[in-house]
């Protein structure tokens, strides 16, 4: 008879998982209980599902608190009661209203107030009395209230150890040390399940209270389906027959658009897919996705459809994706098949600044009571857990820093404080910490979604469910992934800039033309791909050059090969070698040749794992796909996963495979599967890469401005400015009479935007160009100050970065002028003047400025110099004996180079030592790469941004040259003349 049970989802309060709650309850013979987590229903559906498996009657509820104080506990009589409680909490969350001290009257839910409260009870409302409060009944008129009393035994912890864990959680939540937690900020030491018969014994003198409690619990029936049911919106048109007819009509119309009228293979595949879609009842899922695409295209938004959904020719015909599954021989069954238990998956990407409007359309089109964003749960993680524990123990920062290294020596681990921290760490690790929002999942429900969850309102401002994608799938929801990425923003803006700057329209969807364009493919093969979606990182540029990648199909493979799975399985070098000489391929087994001939026997795509599991190990399609998902962390049952691993080995042996071959195939499967793409996903990425490549090849200036203005990419901002310069652009510093908020382009001239000036307030970033467009150029400093109302400090920023150079005055003259103009005031009067009064003119001495001073101003305010390059500000004039473009001529030789640091990456070796990879730019603006082995890295570490003198041996692999560093030192730059 436990009304008030809490799980770990009572964040930073409860200590038990749902599984442990049920285990503890079963051990005590408890046959029914109510989960009432604090201000949330995250675990309610999981609780119901697992209680039924354990033959315990589940009851749903919520404990409502305000300012950490218990107000009342809501207990649902049935699923309508669950909805009433969820609706009540959701209303206050979404409207950001405080919970009221008095609960409303519910038709299908009970309210239990703490006994010490003095509320006037209404129908379905009771007082919950704890066993340690029974003495208070001696002062009360028991006969008048006995019908309103129920036994209340809160459960927060399992035992004394977890009570201590609870105290740590409370201290972390309250951001205080353990000794400062107030008594009413934590639970009681008795707030746990009592021994069998213990609760009855505590209330033995008040049998009527126990009778009331049993009666109320017996009236509660969670009338949810016993098995998982599909909860997505069931139809698009309101009728399944009409859905089927509409989907068929759209699919065949789209097939003609994509393939013409006489493509027999397309007709056969469309017919086959439609049959599977009908049979699996996914017509509405396809039509709703099509509707979202229809809306966004009508708004002029560009999208990329990826994920396993790109395996579908129906999706291609509906324009959900732009990947041709016939051309790539894609595996539809990876997306949807009669055996597959998991839902289908469309990932729809939009530009980062357009996605929110698409989401808003979905909420309005399908109803706010039926639509919500998917949540996620962040957990306490390794070092952060240790740091939090150390803080609440009151340890100094230096000591905490020492303990955050989990690879400490044995001597450190013998420290008693460290032992305490590690004991708490083991209990707290991976516990839920806070609810958050999924990257892009949207749920569209047939019923009001509050039958299954209360809703949160995170900073995004859209209703969000309180559980994650795994629980959504377990409950019966298939999510729609509406995602965003900067790469689409690059493409979208570049197309607009080309039209505005060159008066030329680019049809960016002509991908089939792009992938056959020799200039675009030459650009790809050269590895000159900085700024291009997914193919700009140093590792990807290296792979492209090693593969001599000059076509779409090889790029599709490369997009998955670069993933950590293929690399960690050791198969990336094998793939490159076989790609250049297929005659060297040695297949592990004839099955591998049959299934993986296209990729030289190397598993490259997620589909390859499924194929190997089915054809090599004799698994069925469902188990093979579940095993693949388990390796990627998308399946949470370790027990089920281990069972499937065993099935793989047993199945392979039953088919006569040798243990040696089985072990090697499994090694490749297990190391590969967790970090790979489906082929359709890689193909979708390759499509977007080609769109970027086309723009970079034919419209490089507009493309790089698009990259800069969408603030995304692998590299620091200065490198994209350098690329813009390499594309032939004339780069200008920000200017009040030319610059917009973002980078602008006119012909070959580009002005950096005001948004890049560090410290400039947002209102002036928008106001300065807006005022100029409305009322003309700024005539001089005084005119600028009067029209914008800018203050002294902000004006000085603009002067120092050179933004007022159009006034004809030097920086130093302007700095003199601005102080004279403001006098002793920080901000001038800005009221309109009846008469224009000229300012007095002063004769200044000659004020000399230098390029070096300007460069230092730019370094400070933009993050990089424009007036000079970083090479120009070096003290030394040496620029290296070899340039990047000459490296292939010096393979095997030790060379000296000077390079401007771009980025670095560390990778642990098998011996746990760190190996580093660096990327640099030479004086001519050409990138090159370095390798730093563990024996040289500690002596010659990276020291941040700047230029380095590099001594190393030139090595070459598959035609790609890099430098194995022997010695490495950062070069000094000229001293700042401003400070001298």
Largest sheet: 7 strands, mixed
Q: Could you list the spans in which at least 5 consecutive residues all have pLDDT below 50?
A: 406-411
Give helix % range: 40-55%
Number of helices: 37
Work out the radius of gyration.
33 Å
Q: Structural class, judged by helices and strands? A: alpha/beta
Shape: globular
Beta-strand share of residues: 5-15%
Kindly state the number of beta strands.
22
- Alpha-carbon distance between the termini? 79 Å
Strand order of the largest sheet: 1-2-3-4-5-6-7
Mean pLDDT: 91
Question: Main attributes?
Answer:
980 residues, alpha/beta, seven-stranded mixed beta sheet, five-stranded mixed beta sheet, 37 helices
Write structural notes for this entry.
Mean pLDDT is 91; it is low at 406-411. With 980 residues, this protein is an alpha/beta fold. A hairpin with a 7-residue loop joins strand 12 (455-456) and strand 13.
């Amino acid at each position: 008879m436990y009304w008030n049970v809490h799980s770990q989802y009572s964040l930073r309060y409860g200590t038990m998982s749902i599984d442990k709650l049920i285990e503890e309850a079963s051990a005590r013979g408890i046959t029914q209980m109510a989960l009432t987590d604090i201000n949330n229903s995250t675990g309610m559906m999981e609780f119901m599902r697992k209680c039924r498996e354990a033959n315990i009657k589940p009851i749903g509820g919520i404990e409502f608190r305000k300012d950490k104080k218990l107000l009342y506990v809501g207990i649902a009589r049935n699923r309508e009661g669950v909805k009433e409680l969820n609706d009540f909490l959701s209303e206050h969350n979404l409207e950001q209203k405080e919970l009221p001290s008095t609960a409303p009257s519910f038709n299908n839910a009970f309210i239990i107030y703490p006994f010490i409260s003095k509320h006037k009870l209404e129908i379905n409302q009771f007082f919950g009395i704890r066993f340690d409060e029974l003495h208070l009944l001696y002062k009360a008129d028991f006969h008048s209230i006995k019908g309103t009393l129920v036994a209340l035994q809160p459960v927060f912890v399992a035992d004394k150890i977890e009570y201590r864990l609870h105290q740590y959680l409370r201290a972390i939540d309250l951001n205080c040390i353990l000794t400062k937690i107030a008594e009413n900020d934590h639970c009681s030491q008795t707030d746990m399940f009592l021994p069998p018969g213990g609760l009855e014994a505590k209330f033995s003198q008040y049998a009527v209270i126990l009778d009331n409690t049993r009666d109320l619990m017996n009236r509660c029936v969670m009338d949810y389906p016993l098995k998982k049911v599909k909860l997505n919106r069931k139809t698009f048109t309101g009728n399944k027959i009409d859905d089927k007819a509409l989907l068929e009509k759209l699919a065949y119309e789209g097939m003609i658009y994509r393939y013409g009228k006489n493509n027999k293979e397309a007709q056969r595949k469309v017919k086959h897919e439609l049959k599977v879609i009908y049979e699996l009842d996914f017509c509405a899922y396809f039509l709703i996705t099509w509707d979202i695409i229809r809306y966004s295209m009508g708004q002029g938004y560009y999208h990329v459809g990826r994920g396993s959904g790109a395996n579908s020719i129906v999706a291609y015909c509906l324009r959900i994706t732009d990947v041709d599954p016939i051309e790539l021989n894609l595996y539809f069954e990876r997306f949807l098949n009669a055996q597959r238990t998991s839902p289908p998956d469309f990932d729809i990407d939009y530009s980062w600044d357009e996605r929110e409007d698409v989401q808003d359309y979905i909420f309005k089109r399908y109803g706010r009571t039926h639509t919500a964003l998917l949540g996620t749960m962040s957990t306490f993680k390794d070092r952060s857990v240790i740091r939090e524990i150390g803080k609440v123990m009151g340890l100094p920062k230096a000591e905490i820093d020492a303990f955050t290294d989990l690879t400490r020596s044995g001597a450190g681990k013998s420290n008693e404080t460290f032992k305490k921290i590690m004991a708490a760490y083991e209990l707290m690790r991976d516990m839920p910490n806070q609810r958050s929002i999924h990257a892009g999942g949207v749920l569209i429900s047939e019923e009001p979604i509050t039958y299954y969850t209360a809703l949160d309102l995170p900073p995004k401002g859209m209703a969000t469910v309180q559980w994650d994608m795994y629980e959504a799938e377990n409950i019966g929801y298939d999510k729609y992934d509406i995602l965003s990425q900067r790469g689409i923003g690059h493409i979208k803006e570049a197309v607009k800039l080309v039209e505005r700057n060159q008066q030329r329209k680019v049809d960016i969807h002509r991908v089939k033309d792009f992938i056959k364009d020799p200039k675009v493919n030459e650009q790809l093969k050269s590895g000159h791909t900085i700024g291009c979606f997914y193919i700009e990182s140093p590792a990807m540029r290296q792979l492209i050059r090693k593969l001599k990648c000059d076509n779409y199909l090889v790029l599709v493979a490369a997009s998955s090969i670069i993933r950590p799975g293929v690399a960690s399985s050791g198969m990336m070098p094998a793939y490159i070698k076989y790609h250049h000489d297929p005659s060297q391929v040695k297949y592990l087994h004839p099955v591998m040749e049959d299934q993986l001939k296209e990729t030289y026997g190397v598993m490259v795509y997620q589909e390859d794992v499924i194929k190997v599991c089915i054809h090599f190990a004799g698994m069925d399609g469902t188990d093979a796909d579940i095993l693949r998902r388990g390796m990627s962390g998308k399946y949470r049952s370790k027990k089920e996963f281990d069972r499937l691993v065993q099935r793989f080995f047993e199945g392979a042996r039953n088919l006569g495979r040798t243990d040696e071959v089985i072990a090697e195939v499994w090694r490749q499967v297990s190391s590969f599967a967790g970090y790979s793409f489906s082929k359709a996903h890689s193909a979708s990425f390759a499509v977007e890469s080609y769109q970027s490549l086309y723009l970079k090849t034919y419209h490089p200036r507009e493309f790089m401005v698009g990259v800069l203005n969408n603030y995304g990419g692998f590299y620091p901002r200065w490198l994209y400015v350098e690329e813009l310069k390499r594309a032939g652009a004339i780069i200008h510093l920000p200017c009040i009479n030319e610059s917009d908020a973002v980078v602008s382009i006119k012909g070959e001239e580009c002005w950096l935007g005001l948004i890049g000036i560090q410290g400039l307030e947002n209102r002036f970033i928008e106001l300065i160009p807006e005022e100029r467009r409305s009322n003309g150029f700024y005539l001089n400093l005084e005119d600028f100050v009067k029209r914008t109302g800018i203050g002294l400090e902000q004006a000085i920023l603009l002067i120092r970065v050179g933004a007022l150079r159009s006034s004809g005055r030097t920086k130093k003259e302007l700095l003199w002028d601005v102080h004279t103009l403001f006098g002793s005031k920080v901000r001038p009067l800005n009221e309109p003047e009846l008469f224009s009064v000229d300012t007095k003119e002063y004769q200044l001495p000659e004020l000399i400025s230098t390029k070096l001073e300007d460069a230092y101003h730019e370094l400070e305010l933009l993050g990089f110099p424009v007036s000079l390059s970083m090479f120009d500000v070096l003290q030394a004039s040496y620029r290296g004996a070899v340039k990047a473009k000459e490296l292939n001529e010096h393979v095997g030789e030790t060379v000296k180079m000077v390079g401007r640091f771009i980025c670095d990456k560390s990778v642990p070796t098998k011996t746990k030592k760190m190996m580093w990879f660096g990327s640099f730019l030479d004086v001519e603006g050409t990138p090159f790469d370095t390798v730093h082995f563990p024996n040289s890295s500690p002596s010659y570490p990276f020291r941040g941004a700047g230029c380095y003198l590099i001594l190393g041996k030139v090595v070459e692999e598959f035609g790609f040259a890099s430098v194995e560093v022997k010695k490495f030192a950062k070069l000094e730059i000229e001293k700042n003349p401003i400070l001298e």
